[in-house]
Each structure stands twice: as C-alpha cells, then as structure tokens.
Amino acid sequence: MSQMVTLTANPSLDRTLVLPGPLDRGSVARLGVSSTEPGGKGVNVSRAVAAAGADVVSVLPAAADDPIVTALHGLGLRLATVPVAGAVRTNYTLVEPDGTTTKLNEPGNALDAETRAALTEALRGHAAGARWVVLSGSLPAGTPVDWYATLVRALRDTGARIAVDTSEAPLLALLAAGRDAVPDLLKPNTEELAQLAGVPEAEVVADPAAALAAVATLHERGVHSVLLTLGGDGAMLSTADGGLWSATPPPVTVRSTVGAGDCSLAGYLLADLAGAAPDERLRNAVAYGSASASLPGSAVPTPDQVDGSLVRVVPGPPITTVEHPAVPVPVPAAGRDDR
C-alpha cells in the first residue's frame, strides 16, 4: 500500500530553454544550459514526495517504452501506466534572466473511454488503503470536462482523501457536479479562484475580503480545505470548520516557477502525512514552493533544500503584499505554473 497516489492525465517531458536576455520575438537567441525532465502536475507532486522519502505511486497514460517512463524509473518512482498509442507530449519553458517564464505546451494524447476506464481501475487499486489521492493538471483534448468529478465519486469508497489541482473547464465542472464529487482539498491559485467566483483576478488579488468570499463559496459546496497559493505573497489555508491562516515566504532568487505550485501541494501533503497541525502544513507548503522556485527548470527540492524557519504564518487572511528587496523582480514563487 502507498501513502499517496497521483494521477497525471496529461503527462509531459518538460524542456527548459534558458535565454541569455529578455525574449526578443523574431530574433535568434543563443541558449544557455537547457534541460529535459519528466513532468505534468501530478508527476511533479510525486517527484517531490518521493524525494522526501514518502511512498507514492504515479498513475499516468504512457507506453512502456516512452521516454517519460524511462526517466521516472531512473528517478526511482513507482509507476502504474496505461499504454497509449502516441508519445507523451513535450512542453517548452523559455526562462529569461529575471526569472520570467514563457510556457509553450503541446496538447497531449487523447484518452478514449477504454483508456480512461483502465486509468480509473489503476487509480482505485492503488488508492485502497492510501492516505491521499492527488488528481492534478489539465485533461487532454476530447476528455470529458467532468472526468475529475467522475473520478472523485469512483474513489470515495477507497477511504483515501482526495486533493484536486486543476483549472478552467475541468475545475468549473468539478465544482458544478454536486457535493458527492467535491474533493477534500482544493489547491487553486488566484486566477483559478477568480474563475470559480466569476470575478476578475485583480479583484481577488487586491481585496482579501473578495478572496475570502470566494473561498467561502467553496466550503459551502462541500470542500473541507482550500490551499490558495498567492505567488510571491505566499499562500492561505482555509478550512470548513473556520480555520484560517496566511503565510508569507522568505526572500528567494527566482530561477523558474515551473512546478512551484505542485511542490507547494506536495509540501502540504507531506506535512499532513507527518501529522502536522494546519498552520504547519501551510508553512511546509510555502517552504516547498519557495524552494522549488529557487531551482532551475522543473527541478523539485529535496528536504535539505527546504527551510520553513523563515516562513511567517499568522492566523487570519493576508493583510498586505510583502515586498522582499532581495528579489529584484516580483516573479511568483508558487501558484501560476504549467497545466
């Protein structure tokens, strides 16, 4: 049995291209050192969890000889794969010297009904006895937008708690599907929370009351815990029983934001597996997201690269935006990453 199981319906090989200066459209750029790593949001969570020594199984659609499978086996990850005809997609990240990232994501392989059924059974089999199941990332073209809602219902009798991190149509469909399809933990960023609330993102970012009102609607729909990532301003944790905490991150030199939100989720779940209180789960989430942002490409931090001692956690909502002079450009440390 595993402590955690992740599903990545749209896995990817993440190719990071380091630019020598700001992106200049139409010109020729001499790239710096580039890298390719196995990715997709659920895969990123699994990599961070496994790096911390916790037991995790990654469920994903990929042929046995796909490069992503080889790469993940090379990292020592346990996999449950369902074969598909096409190769796993490649996503490209252009990284500028100030940490600004531009994402170019391929669409990924379509999942037919037979493949979705096989993924569901693999997920259910490994979820039995697990502590958490994580459904994370985008859905490939042609996949029903309510598939995450269908999966939550299918997983209810396994006893595992369910966390979801997605966006756009799959996120809206999940929250519209009814209380029996609602996850235990939802990890939106400000853009996704605004989508759910039907308000401009700027309103959620600028007005804590608007953010709290939007989060309250998620609790009303049955979500127990909401981990709201706020980019360079840290994160907020709200629970259905009235708990509310905010955390601000330490100053970091941002190298890449790819996977930072996934590492935040991994940090939260690792702390939960260790029996930590809610405020300490939030502290670990922000520490992991910040550590991830300080690393190149889509690298995930190891525990010795994560320091929660400089993360400030307080009861209640965020009050002001925290400025860190050590960071030359306020690039998000966690939250808006690839899908």
TrEMBL record:
Name the SUPFAM superfamilies for this protein.
Ribokinase-like (SSF53613)
Q: Which domain of life is it from?
A: Bacteria
Instruction: Write out the GO cellular component annotations.
Output: cytosol
InterPro entries from the UniProt entry: Carboh/pur_kinase_PfkB_CS, PfkB_dom, Ribo/fructo_kinase, Ribokinase-like, Tagatose/fructose_Pkinase
Q: EC number(s)?
A: 2.7.1.-
One Pfam annotation reads PfkB
List membrane-spanning regions: none
Domain Carbohydrate kinase PfkB: from-to ranges: 34-303
- Asked if Methyltransferase is a keyword of the record, the answer is no
Recorded GO MF terms? ATP binding; phosphofructokinase activity
CDD domains recorded: FruK_PfkB_like
Alphabetically sorted, this entry's keywords are: ATP-binding, Kinase, Nucleotide-binding, Transferase
User: Which family does the entry's similarity section mention?
Assistant: Belongs to the carbohydrate kinase PfkB family.
Q: Which PANTHER family match?
A: 1-PHOSPHOFRUCTOKINASE, 1-PHOSPHOFRUCTOKINASE-RELATED
The name on file for this protein is: Hexose kinase
**What is the species listed in this Swiss-Prot or TrEMBL entry?**
Goekera deserti
